[in-house]
Design brief:
It is built from 16 helices and 15 strands. By secondary structure, the chain is α/β, with parallel strands linked by helices. The longest helix has 22 residues. The structure holds ligand C2E and calcium ion (CA) (2 copies). The site of one calcium ion has 4 residues, from loops.
Length: 429
Amino acid sequence: MKDTLTGLDQYEVFLAKLQKEIEEVGDDRIVIVYTDIKHFKYINDTYGYKVGDALLEDFVSEFMKFEDKILCAARVYSDNFVVANRLSPDGLSNEEFRDLIYQVNLERETKFREKYLNSRLQFCTGISVIDKNSRSFDAETAVSNANLARKVAKEMESDSCVLFDQSMMEGIKREVEITSYIPKALAQKEFQVYFQPKIETETNALIGAEALIRWQRPDGDFVYPDEFIPLIERSGQIVDVDNYVYREVFRFLKERIDEGKKVVPISVNVSRVHLNKMHILQYVKELLEEFPIPCSLVEFELTESIYLDNTERAVELIKGLHKMGFKVSMDDFGSGYSSLNLLSKLPIDIIKLDRVFLKEGEMQENDRIIISCVVDMAKRLRITSLCEGVETQEQSAYLKEVGCQMQQGFYFSRPIPQKVFENFMEKSE
Ligand code: C2E
Ligand code: CA
Ligand code: CA
């Protein structure tokens, strides 16, 4: 049975053939090459399916040039192809084979980009190898390993060809372990909100704090946000976790106000995932009904990259938050592809300079210049500036010199638990 468009084997037929090859391979290795065409959808959408189909056929005829070395090949679905090759023990090493495919991909890309007028077209390839030690593998596992390596390749900007290794499975296991545990962790209140003070440069007074999530497992181990947040962003669970943080912050502020105690504005982080759902405005409205507090006490931090993902949606969200009376800041400014242009386009109140500007050791002249320019520009645009990651007296003094209004960093305080932060607040004037 053949695939009608490409004339290749159907995937089931391919698997059966591959299984047979695995059983008969002897001392040779079988290499599974799984390739996907990045931005293929764009070709279909822009030029239509006819051109898309032509590209797929072209792609197949390109790799069939190596027919004498190919054991079997199939289209898995859409623009996903899999090819099995045999390598003899004294042939190319696995790494050399990967480098060869990488070169082939580069050549194909150049050719296809010209032909199909799409400069973004790219091939992503994952490779898995069956050798003496992995003979027990079945065909399906071998393909799924290559596919996993392909996904890793797709996430990387620079390398379009990745060799599978067992550690990728460990990563997946950890991801499944974490994401399947999140609902329980929420229910068991394993998450805690920590607070990192923000200081006014001019007076050294406490003028706010950022709420940062902490996760302590029942065995006492901390899982840090840098590890679990990217995972739960992929699964979408970040929305529940963020909402939990917002609720804790509103509850905390309301309790302090009711007790007549001192309060300062608290900022919370907004994951990019909220942008797709936009339930955040409704949720915050409900929180305000449950915990009526002045909106000037809460600020929402949106990372720079959110704005770049979808500027229109981001503007919509900022406007919605503004309408309710909240402040909005641009987080991590300078960490990615900052666009200065963006600053003038967006109605933000505060810009948070990323800690990349404050590297370890003495401050570099270039960083000084950039900081002073950004602060200056923010001032002219009437945007408040805050610098994150301040760790030394030298850095803090320089920020004062250039007129950066607020600072946050280990130099003043690490993120601290609620009770400790309450003491911090009481002690500050
Ligand atoms: P972020 O929003 O840029 O938060 C600041 C991070 O910098 C925090 O890391 C903080 O502990 C760290 N930091 C603060 N001062 C210093 C310093 O002087 N030196 C150094 N080296 N680091 C400093 P943390 O708490 O591990 O959070 C990492 C990231 O995870 C955050 O980056 C934020 O993007 C995300 N995150 C944390 N909590 C939440 C949350 O509740 N919701 C969402 N969506 N993201 C969160
Ligand atoms: Ca932040
Ligand atoms: Ca930040």
